[in-house]
Amino acid sequence: MNDSFPPQPHRPEVHGHRGCRGLRPENTLPAFLHAVALGADVLELDVVISQDHQVVVSHEPWLSAKLGRDALGQLIDPAQEQQYNLYQLPYAAIRRCAVGEWPHPDFPEQQPIPSYRPLLCDMLRQAAAASQLQGRSIGFSVEIKSSPEGDDVFHPRPAQFVDLVMAELQTAEAIDRTTLLSFDPRVLQAARHSYPGLALCLLIEDHLPPVAELFGALGFEPEVLGPDFHLLSAATVQGIRAEYPELRLAPWTVNTPAELALVLSWQTDAITTDYPDRLLSLLGKA
């Protein structure tokens, strides 16, 4: 009797970028819950800090004119948006700033849904509850955006920023399902020092260093590498695999069917996309 089974096709984790930015207003509860309903494995999101040290889900540390209004319901002048600094606003004011009322110019399939910037704790609780109703567990990729120039202006310094985020993850009992992402090596260094068990991802944009020097500035090998997918090729992926056999690869942000098919052929560990429905459809046909 032949007990062998045919090899199963490789299936990367499906990471919903900002929830599912191509389908619902980014970084909102409707986007995260829709991504869960679609079947995404991991929710990718960005966090900022309010004046009263609340951890808020938002890509920019200011009110983006593209996304919504100010606390008084007024439109925001794009040239002045950085003056609406979330690090200088209490969360009660941020909560009043509507987002998602109109179609996003870059995402024609995005369905407008009036919403707001949620607290990380609320997002974690609602996403976990929604996934439990499906009989599964959802993961989280939480990105901290920071820079030396932004310290004490748009955000706290790295160690405090990490502590504030970790406190929310600990309260939600989500640490074992979370990877902390950052372009800023200082954030990952602070996290590795204070929370050595937390999975970390170095994000890379614009330039991919030589493979042997990928983590020279960081000083250690993280669990995950998250490059812009345009920086990769089949040969590059093979080279990274050979140099770092334990490293997980999670390229971003892969959106068109052709791009998704290309990155699928590289057999990365995860794919981050604004359209988890497109990736899930391709995987269902594999």
UniProtKB/TrEMBL annotation:
SUPFAM superfamilies: PLC-like phosphodiesterases
Residues of the GP-PDE domain: 12-283
Region of interest called Disordered, as start-end residue ranges on this chain: 1-21
Signal peptide: none
UniProt xrefs under InterPro entries: GP_PDE_dom, PLC-like_Pdiesterase_TIM-brl
PANTHER family per record: GLYCEROPHOSPHODIESTER PHOSPHODIESTERASE, GLYCEROPHOSPHORYL DIESTER PHOSPHODIESTERASE
Protein name: Glycerophosphodiester phosphodiesterase family protein
